[in-house]
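Appendix B, Record 12. Input sequence as logged:
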Amino acid sequence: MEARSDRSEWLALVTEPVLEPDLPICDAHHHLWLDNGHSGFPYPVPSFHADTGSGHNVVRSVFLECNAEYYTDGPEHLRPVGETAFVAACAAEARRAGGTEIAAIMGHADVMLGDGVEEVLNAHAAVGEGLFRGIRYIVAWDADPKLRMRVPEGTLADETFRAGVRTVGRLGYTFDTMVYHPQLPELTAMARACPDTTIVADHLCAPLGVGPYLNRRDEVLVQWRRDMTELASCPNVRLKLGGIGMPMYGLRWDKGELPPTSEQLAAPWRDEFLHLIDAFGPDRCLFESNFPMDKRGCSYLVLWNTFKRIAADFSAAEKLELFHDTAARTYRTATVA
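Logged structural output:
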């Protein structure tokens, strides 16, 4: 595949001072790959460190699975373990380089194995160099075929799937997932059926703005707010605040002549973020970069300035929760920056 640009030159057209440069950050969600087909460009440790070194105090981070660097042979259900081995080596490279620490690894396993997922979790732990913290299993599905990802309709209600989620929790691991906003009631029901598993909902539960949801943002957000408030009633659920640089939310920052400033990026999301933080509490909300996926729409510096603008009125203790300690607790890394 011919490499495509990571948009760094375009993103460099907008610069701004770093807000609150001493505030410690644990980036709760980023990826690494040599080339996994998502982008057509590599995103190894030096690229990640170039972003995290842009001025914010990103002391540690959490890697999230992205279907990269799987083993190419052996039993199919164990091939995702190759990604954890790859990232464990990346974490060692990051330590040698002295940049942001990769402090936790969230791999992938087929939860539809039910109780049998334990074998895969053990295999991840064996190669994770003490950093393996759980798995992500994306369940995003929509009636529009163009929006479907990995799984069929109704996965969240499947009893074998739920048995797998419970196994993840029973073994002391965290379970990340991604849904689209119409699936929120299903996610809430699943969370209530698996109360002993810590469940992390990624990317705001994706209030879509493309396909059949194009130009319906106000309508989508009204229902999304209601359903997110109900999800917040599940004490075992954590929420990642991010994903706002992705085109699927309908705010096509990637199409602009210039990339957005942090003020521009914050404006359409401030009220929504504040509603979510009020519903879940700072101790269950985690800011995430989702880089390099969000790099299609904004720079790393601008993204974290955006989050800081939105959280400007919170206390110092609440900011520490939102930017560092909630992620550190959820993924069992150091909570004192």
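The CA atoms of residues 262 and 302 lie 5 Å apart.
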